[in-house]
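Good day; I would like, with your permission, to put a structural problem before you. I would ask you to consider whether the tokens describe a fold that such a sequence might reasonably adopt. The full record is reproduced below for your convenience:
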Amino acid sequence: MIKQKILAATIALLGGSTALAIPPGLEGESVQNIEAAEGISGWEHIDNQRVLVNVDEKSTYLLTLKHQCHGLAWAQNVTVTMSNNTIWAGFDEIKADGLACPIHRIDKLDHKQHLDH
């Protein structure tokens, strides 16, 4: 059964980018999943294809979407699908006001990198 977790209700409109490269200073270790995903404590919209997700205030992940998710910048409701409390790259998706945006890649970041961002 797929569960959805609300990440945020409203976000500010930010400029998008078509680049797929990880922003400088946000390089991380590529991982297949995020376990204990019910602990999501916040998120940050980077551009139309990348989102930072904080889990339990100790771990930060960069989610790269399979394609541009144009509704992400102004969505009123943002959710993420998960299976058995785990978010999987290549399987789960972010939904921005119902628009499905598949997760292509997950990178676990050093917490210090996120704080410096």
In short: The radius of gyration is 13 Å. Residues 64 and 104 are 6 Å apart (CA to CA).
